[in-house]
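Much of what follows relies on a compact textual record of a protein's fold. A record is reproduced here so that you can trace the correspondence yourselves:
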Amino acid sequence: MTQYDAALYDPDQWVVDGVLRRQSRRRGDKTCILTTAGDSITFSQAHLAANQVARFLQSLHVAKGDTVAVMLPNGLDYCRAWFGISRLGAIHVAINTDYKGTFLKHVLNNSRARIIITETGFFGRIAEIEDELRDLAEVVTIGPVVSAKFRRLRIHNFGDYANFNSDELDVCVTYRDLACIMYTSGTTGPAKGVLMPHGHTYLFGLGTIDNMRLTESDIFYIVLPLFHANAMFMQLYASLIIGCTAVIRNRFSASAWIHDIVHYQATITNSLGVVSAFVLNQPPTEMDKNHRLHTIGVAPNVPELDAKLRERFAIKNVIGLYGMTEVNIPLYTQPGLPRPGSCGKVWDKYYEARIVNPDTDEAVPARQVGEIVVRPKQPFGFMAGYNAMPDKTVEAWRNFWFHTGDAAWMDDEGYVYFVDRIKDCIRRRGENISSFEIEEAISQHTAIAEVAAVAVESPIPGGEDEVKVVVVLKPGQRLSHEELVSYCEQCMPRFAVPRYIEFAESLPKTPTNKVQKNLLRQDGVTPATWDREAKIS
């Protein structure tokens, strides 16, 4: 097994600034991050930029503990923003770049961010909801400041950070301080902001190092969005911690995947949801086995895709794993020990996990399906709660365990196998989607009386769910499937736009007037269901 520097396991070093400072001393001129657009930054430059961006934010009256929203695509500016916010001890609010309308308004208001770092392409979305944003006052834009139709928001140029000196700040940040808020979809309410201490974010990276055997000689190829924990912490932060180079693509491209792997000599990457399926659907090339890639992390670890990845691309290690923004990544399979279909054993150095009866919280026997529950062994190695939602925090924690809402079973050797979601949540192509938020957005259409959103099984291996909505129109109203899709595209992220639509006279309900979504899920795709993708093709 690879032997690592003992400093990696010292919680007092578990902050972004400490990692950058250490790597600046050890590997100053080594490339830290390279983008497929051709930009790059060394470890020394990353460390200096962290101090400069922190001072720039101070000039905008940001202090330790303040929230700063970041809504940017993958790239060096995203990384510099993260470095600077972390150095200052402020809290990075990671915003999905697909968010708009009520989705975006909720995140900005819930986080109480006064400043957002973004690009001009998102100005229109912010302007549309400006009057409903209670705290936002400053917009920091990537590139030149341009005129915008903001009525009160002030605009600044992010590039001005380069005018500030790079001397160390007199701000102490520890692994106990909050580092980030990431939003994960609720079930019966809007998205919940997961409060992530520095220790928690660091352990995402350390988990990759410990369980996927990452070394300083690796090259990590990152195609997932940095506003999610997988790319930002499991991949990029892991690369910073160990001192290897990270190659970042602005967004995933199935056709470019193997070309990038070969060109950048990548040795390790992560997949999520249908990424592997999309890659495998590309025509075979002479490059498929002519590369240095030895490890890929996958979730879910579908046996069919596991076998195809090993066979077609000769990837030695296909690592199944399981985690959530709230609980880190407590389960991994191990290099050299393939276990198709499993998300692994417990990383018991830092976490405990059990399979329990969801009604009693008592552990179930091996091979019996129950709910995955998790708790940390390391202080501040777990979420600190849901931002401004204490009731949701209490609801998730019960009997001293965090309840994931996911069903699984464990074999006699301790390997866990994911089965399905227990809670009413939709997961599509790596994105958690709140049925509540879909319903809230669609119900505002003047022709609609009621709507219910449910998950139906995706026809793509590893694709998890597709979104189906069952819609009841108001008396005398007419609405076509295409018109409803067009409406959804205007008011919700692309990943949340329903694939399946079904109009109905009424929704099935309990005697207490609650919609029986279990019946709608059981119905799945019926002869009366309209398929948006079938119409497109």
Observations:
- The chain has a mean pLDDT of 93.
- Residues 43-59 form the longest helix (17 residues).
- The radius of gyration is 23 Å.
